[in-house]
Design brief:
The chain is an all-alpha fold. It is built from 11 helices and 2 strands; from the N terminus they run ααββααααααααα.
């Protein structure tokens, strides 16, 4: 009897905690949408900022965030998936490979400001890229690379061993087996984890603070070596550093809502891709 009571109490406690978290997130979303939606219009999305960002729109910040996200995808996605394939399919399972995995998992938990300092020292100063899109994209790619590797490797390991053995028994090479019998069935998990990681990068402030972001730059970038505005940093400055805090409060909510929609769109895209591939490759 006491065991059943303890189980019921634990269940109710966990349910209350879950509902509490959902309510907190729901309130935050409601507050951002309620204050930010009236600000968003065509002029806000397509015009340049004026008077140090206290007026005008956020077009350069949207374009800058887009460029940084695309740059991160171009660098981190092939490297992360390639590394995961090597660790899961080719690397010998010994102490060295376990140490490599431990290092990757550890890097996935490193605070983002540390990656910002790393990018500042390596890409901005040592490689002489300056504060630029290239330096910012490489820094963000380093930050999300461990997450992509871990999620992709787990997706590869989830594919049954029999798929590989049957292909090899029919005379296929190792790469043919991976390409035709492993990747199609693991691609949904790999892409989902990768997009979620890149969505996190799109909302980060600390790494771009030191490597690429400018607060007030009312022009679009012309090359990968230019500075750009970015939505997370623009929101941070409006909320904490701008001298006219009360005046720019609506702009804060509008910028936050646009950033939220961007990250939410990437998450929805990850869900759609996962559903598509799971329906296409059933096992």
């Amino acid at each position: 009897m006491s065991g059943n009571l303890s189980q019921k109490l634990s269940y109710q406690l966990l349910r209350l905690i879950t509902y509490g978290i959902v309510l907190c997130i729901g309130y935050i979303l409601f507050d951002v949408i309620r204050h930010g939606l009236p600000v968003i219009n065509w002029d806000f999305l397509t015009s340049f900022p004026r008077r140090s960002g206290s007026e005008g729109g956020i077009l350069p910040a949207i374009v800058g965030t887009f460029y940084l996200t695309v740059g991160t995808i171009m660098v981190a996605l092939p490297l992360g998936i390639g590394c995961a394939i090597y660790l899961a399919e080719y690397a010998e399972q010994n102490r060295f490979s376990e140490l490599v995995r431990l290092a990757i998992i550890t890097l996935a938990g490193v605070p983002s400001i540390v990656y910002g300092l790393f990018g500042l020292g390596l890409f901005v100063i040592f490689c002489r890229f300056g504060t630029s899109i290239l330096a910012g994209s490489l820094t963000l790619a380093c930050m999300v690379l461990p997450i992509i590797i871990v999620t992709s490797e787990e997706a590869l390991r989830a594919v049954p061993r029999g798929f590989r053995e049957a292909s090899l028994a029919l005379g296929a090479t190792k790469w043919q087996t991976i390409r035709t019998n492993v990747l199609p069935y693991s691609i949904s998990g790999m892409i989902t984890g990768s997009i979620l990681a890149i969505g996190r990068a799109a909302g980060e402030t600390a790494p771009i603070l030191l490597t690429v972001a400018a607060f007030f730059l009312p022009k679009l970038p012309g090359s990968v070596f230019d500075q750009v505005m970015a939505l997370p940093y623009h929101l941070y400055i409006l909320a904490t550093q701008h001298p006219e805090t009360e005046k720019v409060l609506p702009l804060q909510y509008g910028t936050a809502l646009v950033l939220l929609m961007l990250v939410l769109g990437m998450n929805i895209g990850a869900i759609v891709i996962r559903i598509y591939f799971r329906k296409k490759y059933k096992w």
